[in-house]
């Protein structure tokens, strides 16, 4: 995977929310005059409506000239227009208005600390009026991968060529043209590019006309765009080749270097199919007449969703039957699915500010899987999604995890959040059912097309449809209400989701079953408890959409749902069941722990009737139990014991035993090792412990105790004691706790006259002193009691059985 965010944060521009200036620096411009605006965010008194942009990049000198005309509307009377500009050499600025008879020159103040300029108007700018600001400027093409940048590549004749392209997200549009570079300032764009005759250009919109402007220079003019954010503007000057296909009045093209045109077919088919899928899924047509997907020969990010002109790394777009693997195919498909989802979620409806980027990216990541599952089921990407959840929850169970909605800290943390968000959306989708979820998204996109939103807007749009949906259920009203746990007739998606977005980590749900009652309880799950925060964890409370299946699951309500919005609750089953499994297909973002009996039942089920559970449920149980091996340690032994049943598992556990530094853990491992039914291994364990090197001798009584608990082991343990008696009493003197223990545990299972005789004779044969040991007497008495018990109960017992 590609680390988009290291790119995001290592960009030369600082993160917009995090700059703190020394007081005395505020408001000083490059020419020493007072800058009229001290904030990082632009004022909202003037808003852009339209940009006319002409660019002339020179790929040889790497300079570019630009000229922009911005039509703005005044919301509040002002003398200044504050906008963004970064590293641009402004040569001329004028302002015009319908009421003025000619353009007036204006002063431009620059404040590089905030990447801002202030245009000082000759008169007060009046509310409701439109003005057009014209700025001529020049700059250099960037030699990073950010802004309006140039890269070189070798063409089909191995000759070095230059290409200019853009990457504006998040804050680099301002380095290509003066603009209101915040996502909420949407406007229309009319872009013209002057170029050498031998090059060609691409931009968000289709090309309208090409006109000659000077010797060897022509100008390409693109259609006017729809209302869009600056970070989505894009243009490319290059010599790329393409193949195209039309679908539903949109021309889809894949562009690559001419010698790589043979590798673009997969991308074209995929993009067409996915474009069709999204239009149906969102019930909103893709609004542009063309969609270009371009493989840039040198590209920092994985891909970028510029509206109508998506840019990719070559490895995320090109696919070659001869050299690409199945995984490569999945990657290409996933990246296309992701960037196409952004054409709606991000481009049509845009986050108001970067603090909600997690929603944009999280949603695109989520849609990536939904779209692929529906469009390319053969790729089995639902399994990839399950893997993603395993990975994400692993990270989120660390103390270092942080809430999704918090100031971003490091690149990795932002990236992890996208995956968490995707996983949470899946949980929501499964809970409110797919149709409601889809209707909620559709509602959201319709409500906010060409606008900007905060994350609350999404949950509100969801709430609108979930309420409607519930009211229209009618016939199953009562059951559905109790299933969904709707209070006051509404299912509050917002309230539910906030508990997941604002708190860090995720919950551990403990299930205890008694008859028909399931007692469920939640707490924060942490993989290691060294934290000082552990005590404050009592305050964590999630609204958890629990899902569960049982051995009797057949009704239409199955899998069952229950919203756990308290610390604990009791769920009443309709009847007693053999087993119950929570978090169906691991669609929920929580981990489950059962009482030991229920774990054993599930483990047994896995062994005896594995297909009673879905593949995902099986994978989940295994993943779940391994995660638990780290907080509640009472399942650790169960896990080790299950693992030690195979030869490989036993060997592996032994190697873990020898390297473990935790005595508590070693103890459990040893018990698991000694619970094997393989006689040779049991003998080896007892002997090795008696020697005391690999396994210390202090563990021997414990090993013998475990060995003698099993059917094949109890005779073995006694034989071992008999054979090694001299060694044992040399090592642990007579009367020691170890000897007492060994005598007790190696004999307490015997219940026949023959064994009584054998034990008696053995100890008597040793010495008077030994046969008088209290532990020996106790052992003999225990065997006698066992014999009596058998005489009294065996017949009855056999009858019952
Ligand atoms: N919009 C992002 C790229 C981005 C995010 C650039 C934030 C700058 C700031 C794009 O949609 C994306 O997510 N790209 C990924 C690949 C994707 C398939 C996960 C990338 O570049 O790694
Ligand atoms: Zn993205």
From TrEMBL:
GO cellular component, as recorded: cytoplasmic vesicle; extracellular space; plasma membrane
Protein name: Aminopeptidase
EC number: 3.4.11.-
The species this protein was found in: Chrysemys picta bellii (Western painted turtle)
Cofactor: Zn(2+)
Transmembrane stretches, start-end: none
Protein family according to the UniProt entry: Belongs to the peptidase M1 family.
UniProt keyword Zinc, yes or no: yes
Gene name, Swiss-Prot/TrEMBL: LNPEP
Binding residues for Zn(2+): 338, 342, 361
Protein location: Cell membrane
Residues in Peptidase M1 membrane alanine aminopeptidase domain copies: 267-472
């Amino acid at each position: 995977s590609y680390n988009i965010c290291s790119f995001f944060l290592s960009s030369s521009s600082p993160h917009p929310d995090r700059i703190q200036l020394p007081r005395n620096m505020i408001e000083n411009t490059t020419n020493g005059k007072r800058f009229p605006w001290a904030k990082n965010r632009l004022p909202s008194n003037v808003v852009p409506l339209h940009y006319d942009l002409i660019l002339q990049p020179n790929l040889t000198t790497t300079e570019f000239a630009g000229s922009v005309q911005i039509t703005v509307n005044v919301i509040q009377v002002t003398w200044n227009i504050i906008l963004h500009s970064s590293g641009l050499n402004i040569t001329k600025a004028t302002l015009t208005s319908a009421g003025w008879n000619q353009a007036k020159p204006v002063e431009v103040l620059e404040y590089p600390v905030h990447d801002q300029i202030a245009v000082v108007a000759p008169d007060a700018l009046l509310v409701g009026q439109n003005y057009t600001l014209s700025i001529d400027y020049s700059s250099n093409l960037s030699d990073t991968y950010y802004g309006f940048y140039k890269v070189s590549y070798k063409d089909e004749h191995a000759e070095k060529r230059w290409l200019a392209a853009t990457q504006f997200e998040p804050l680099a549009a301002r380095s290509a043209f003066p603009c209101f570079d915040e996502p909420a300032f949407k406007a229309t764009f009319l872009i013209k590019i002057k170029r050498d005759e031998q090059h060609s250009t691409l931009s968000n919109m289709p090309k309208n006309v090409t006109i000659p402007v000077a010797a060897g220079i022509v100008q390409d003019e693109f259609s006017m765009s729809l209302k869009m954010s600056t970070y989505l503007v894009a243009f490319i000057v290059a010599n790329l080749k393409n193949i195209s296909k039309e679908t539903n009045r949109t021309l889809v093209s894949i562009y690559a270097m001419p010698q790589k045109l043979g590798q673009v077919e997969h991308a074209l088919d995929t993009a067409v199919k996915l474009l069709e899928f999204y239009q149906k899924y969102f019930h909103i047509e893709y609004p542009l007449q063309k969609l270009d997907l371009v493989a840039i020969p040198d590209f920092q990010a994985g891909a970028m969703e510029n509206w109508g002109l998506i840019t990719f790394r070559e490895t995320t777009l090109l696919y070659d039957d001869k050299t690409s693997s199945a995984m490569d195919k999945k990657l290409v498909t996933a990246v296309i699915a992701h960037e196409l989802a952004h054409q709606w979620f991000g481009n049509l409806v845009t986050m108001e500010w970067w603090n909600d980027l997690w929603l944009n990216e999280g949603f695109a990541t989520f849609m990536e899987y939904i779209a692929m599952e529906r469009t390319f089921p053969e790729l089995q990407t639902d399994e990839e999604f399950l893997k993603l959840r395993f990975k994400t929850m692993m990270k989120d169970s660390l103390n270092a995890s942080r809430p999704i909605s918090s100031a971003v800290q490091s690149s990795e943390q932002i990236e992890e959040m996208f995956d968490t968000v995707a996983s949470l959306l899946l949980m929501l989708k499964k809970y409110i059912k797919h149709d409601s979820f889809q209707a909620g998204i559709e509602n959201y996109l319709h409500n906010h097309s060409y606008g900007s939103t905060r994350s609350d807007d999404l949950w509100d749009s969801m709430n609108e449809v979930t309420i409607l949906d519930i009211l229209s259920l009618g016939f199953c009203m009562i059951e559905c209400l109790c299933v969904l746990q709707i209070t006051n007739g509404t299912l509050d998606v917002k309230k539910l989701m906030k508990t997941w977005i604002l708190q860090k980590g995720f919950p551990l749900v403990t299930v205890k079953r008694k008859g028909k009652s399931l007692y469920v309880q939640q707490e924060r799950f942490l993989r290691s408890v060294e934290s000082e925060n552990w005590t404050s964890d009592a305050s964590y409370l999630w609204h958890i959409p629990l899902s569960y299946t049982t051995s009797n699951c057949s009704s239409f309500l199955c899998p069952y749902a229950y919203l756990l919005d308290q610390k604990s609750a009791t769920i009443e089953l309709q009847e007693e069941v053999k087993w119950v499994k929570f978090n169906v297909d691991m669609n929920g973002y929580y981990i489950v722990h059962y009482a030991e009996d229920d774990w054993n039942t599930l483990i047994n089920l896995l062994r005896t009737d594995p297909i009673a559970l879905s593949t995902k449920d099986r994978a989940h149980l295994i993943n779940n139990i391994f995660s638990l091996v780290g907080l509640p340690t009472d399942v650790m032994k169960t896990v080790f014991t299950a693992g030690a049943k195979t030869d490989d598992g036993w060997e592996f556990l032994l190697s873990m035993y020898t390297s473990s530094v935790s005595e508590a853990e070693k103890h459990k491992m040893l018990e698991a090792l000694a619970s094997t039914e393989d006689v040779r291994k049991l003998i080896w364990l007892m002997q090795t412990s008696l020697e005391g090197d690999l396994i210390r001798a202090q563990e021997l009584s414990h090993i013998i105790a475990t060995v003698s608990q099993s059917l094949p082991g109890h005779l073995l343990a006694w034989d071992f004691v008999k054979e090694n008696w001299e060694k044992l009493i040399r090592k642990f003197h007579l009367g020691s706790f170890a000897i007492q223990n060994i005598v007790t545990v190696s004999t307490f299972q015997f219940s026949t006259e023959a064994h009584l005789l054998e034990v008696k004779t053995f100890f008597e044969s040793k010495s008077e002193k030994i046969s008088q040991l209290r532990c020996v007497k106790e052992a003999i008495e225990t065997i006698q009691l066992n014999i009596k018990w058998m005489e009294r109960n065996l017949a009855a017992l056999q009858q019952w059985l």
